[in-house]
Amino acid sequence: MKNAVVTPEGDRIRWVELPGEEPARVYVHGLGATSPAYFTASATHQLLAGRRSLLVDLLGHGHSDRPEGFSYTLEAHADALAAALTAAGAKGAELIAHSMGGAVAIVLAHRHPHLVSRLVLVDANLDPQQPVPVMPGSSGIASYTEEEFLSGGWAEVRDRVGAHWWATMRLAGRTALYRTAVHLVAGTTPTMRELLLESEIPCTYLLPEADGPLPGAEALEASGVAVVSVPDCGHNIMLDNPEGFARATAAALARD
């Protein structure tokens, strides 16, 4: 496992790295997840193997440090990831980013465009949301105050999200999980969707076919974003349909 200091306080982002050809591919997990658990099978799939691959855990998640003083805004996550990629010499990388990680990847591409040559967004958050009590995920977490979440709300979330998601969510720092969810729900200014519409970096957006048309797909496609539906899967496309995900991702990375 490799690591880099990404804050003035010495906090470290860690990643699993697979050797291969450049440019690097960087895999970024969603809220309460960890990239090695979600992306190892994809990175080693015959359609995607052979490229230098960094399976990165964002601050507060997985194997990375969990600083209590970090803001965990999408911009702060993007800047910390930029510091890690710079230390790794991974300029012009292809980012494959899921859910919340996709929102971070969009912000990274906007703030540090020299680090990103291509985006594959996997059912990524594009728009602000409203906190919704008793819902799993970011909107449910954001319905608590920070004090409520840390003093017991996290256990209610644990019971709602189920054993599969909790297996990785429990590795995240509770402050990190809460603040990341709150800032993900709030979104950015301009929004992630607006940043993506303005971006000149080649991008493909993957979504589950069962979800139906992506809202705003026509505008995204008019701006150059390819919108691709993947069958037989839910939100965790890479886990639910590994073959379909690998095919769609390989095609996205081969786009002109």
Automatic annotation (TrEMBL):
Q: Which UniProt keywords apply?
A: Hydrolase
Q: Which InterPro entries match?
A: AB_hydrolase_1, AB_hydrolase_fold, AB_hydrolase_sf
Q: Which SUPFAM superfamilies match?
A: alpha/beta-Hydrolases
Question: Keyword Endoplasmic reticulum: yes or no?
Answer: no
Q: Where does the record place the AB hydrolase-1 domain?
A: 26-129
Which PANTHER family did the record assign? AB HYDROLASE SUPERFAMILY PROTEIN YCLE, MONOACYLGLYCEROL LIPASE
Protein known as: Pimeloyl-ACP methyl ester carboxylesterase
Q: Per the UniProt entry, what species is this protein from, by scientific name? A: Streptomyces avidinii
